[in-house]
């Protein structure tokens, strides 16, 4: 019994050091969200999402940046969301092609809205977003 207590005490110290090391390299940053267009704010919320994590994908179309969130639920399906209130200026320093490419991960919460005519994927009005950029963007 004494040995078990000693072992748990020592492993607690080891995990504390590991946590500090992980925090030192934590590259997540919180995003200041823009106000969504009234067409989204006035539409019904289909359902809410809280504390999900997915891939943040980006492309440039007609000179404007478009975002897409790729999320894989535990059931193995694939969901794509169009975040309508991420600021376009978030990646204004980078150059992107016309095809979607993953630029990092996103932790997010928000309200899923009905898809409007002509939209490729389901819109989401984010209430919270935290992003971690891919390593290759950090070096650009």
Low-confidence stretches: 1-25
CA radius of gyration is 19 Å
What count of domains describes the coordinates? 1
CATH topology: OB fold (Dihydrolipoamide Acetyltransferase, E2P)
As an assembly, this protein is: single chain
What is the approximate shape?
globular
Second rung of CATH, namely the architecture: Beta Barrel
Helix content class: 10-25%
Strand order of the largest sheet: 2-3-4-6-5
Helix/sheet category: alpha+beta
How widely separated are the two ends? 54 Å
CATH class annotation: Mainly Beta
What percentage of amino acids are in beta strands?
Answer: 35-45%
Largest sheet: 5 strands, mixed, barrel
Average pLDDT level: 80
């Amino acid at each position: 019994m004494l040995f078990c207590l000693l072992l748990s005490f020592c492993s607690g110290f080891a995990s504390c050091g590991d946590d500090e090391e992980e925090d030192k390299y934590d590259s997540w940053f919180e995003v200041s969200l823009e106000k969504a267009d009234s067409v989204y704010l006035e539409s019904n919320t289909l359902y809410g999402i809280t504390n999900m994590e997915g891939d943040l994908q980006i492309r440039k179309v007609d000179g404007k940046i478009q975002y897409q969130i790729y999320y894989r639920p535990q059931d193995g399906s694939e969901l794509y969301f169009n975040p309508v209130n991420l600021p376009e200026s978030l990646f204004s320093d980078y150059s992107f092609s016309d095809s979607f490419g993953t630029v990092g991960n996103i932790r997010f919460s928000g309200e899923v809205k009905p898809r409007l005519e002509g939209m490729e994927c389901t819109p989401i009005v984010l209430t919270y977003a935290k992003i971690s950029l891919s390593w290759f963007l950090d070096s650009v």
